[in-house]
Design a protein that fits this description.
- The chain contains 9 helices and no strands.
- It is mainly alpha-helical and about 190 residues long.
- Helix 1 crosses helix 2, helix 3 crosses helix 4 and helix 3 runs parallel beside helix 7.
- The longest helix is centred in the middle third of the chain and has 26 residues.
- Pfam families: TetR_N.
- It comes from Paenibacillus odorifer.
- This is TetR family transcriptional regulator.
C-alpha cells in the first residue's frame, strides 16, 4: 500500500526538526545521523532517501531553526503593547529562559563557531539566514542594517557568554548588561 500524499515531506520535516533541536543543544559535530533519526522516531537507514549528506541536513536545519526563531520573536513583538516592540524581543532573547532552553533557542549563538568550519553550502545558507535575522531585527527596531547588525551582535554575544560561564550571578549580569546596552543602541 503506498504512503499517503505528502508523507515524504512530513517525514523530511520531522528529520529537520529533530536535527535543529539536536544541533541547538549539542552542536553539529557531536550529533550523529542515527541520533537525529532516532529523535525523529525513525531508523537511520532512511536518511539518504531524504538527504544527500549531513551537510545538506545542517543547512536545512539552520534555515528551519532561524525561521522558527524569527516567528517566535515576531510573536513576542506582536504581544507587546508598548513601543518600541524591539524591547520585548531584546528582553526575551536575553532572558534566563532563552539562555537555559538551548534546545528551543536561537541556533545562531549555538552554532556560529562550528559554522565557520563547515562547508561552503552550509556557510552560504547560514549567511543568508543571518542576514534575514538582522533584517528582521533592524525592521522591528526601525534602524538601518548597520545598526541592526550591531544590535543583533550584542544580543548574540551576550547570550553566548551568559551560556558559557559557570557562575549563575555572572551569567545573569551578562544578560542584564546585554539588555541595557542593546536597548541603548536602539535609542541612540
Amino acid at each position: 500500500m503506498p504512503y499517503p500524499k505528502g508523507h515524504k515531506i512530513k517525514v523530511r520535516n520531522k528529520i529537520v526538526e529533530s536535527a535543529a533541536q539536536a544541533f541547538r543543544t549539542n552542536g553539529i559535530h557531536d550529533v550523529s545521523v542515527p541520533f537525529i533519526m532516532k529523535g525523529a522516531g525513525l531508523t537511520h537507514g532512511g536518511f539518504y532517501s531524504h538527504f544527500d549528506n549531513k551537510e545538506q541536513l545542517v543547512a536545512e536545519a539552520c534555515r528551519y531553526a532561524i525561521s522558527d526563531t524569527i516567528a517566535l520573536l515576531q510573536k513576542v513583538a506582536d504581544q507587546e503593547e508598548q513601543n518600541p516592540k524591539i524591547n520585548a524581543v531584546i528582553d526575551y532573547y536575553l532572558s534566563p529562559y532563552h539562555r537555559d532552553k538551548m534546545e528551543m533557542g536561537c541556533i545562531i549563538p549555538a552554532l556560529s563557531s562550528e559554522i565557520s568550519r563547515s562547508s561552503e553550502e552550509v556557510r552560504q545558507v547560514f549567511t543568508q539566514e543571518l542576514e534575514r535575522m538582522i533584517a528582521f531585527i533592524s525592521n522591528l527596531a526601525g534602524i538601518d542594517a548597520s545598526k541592526g547588525s550591531a544590535l543583533f551582535s550584542t544580543m548574540v554575544g551576550s547570550l553566548v557568554l551568559a551560556r558559557t560561564v559557570k557562575d549563575p550571578e555572572l551569567s545573569d549580569n551578562l544578560l542584564s548588561s546585554g539588555k541595557q546596552y542593546a536597548k541603548a543602541l536602539v535609542r541612540a
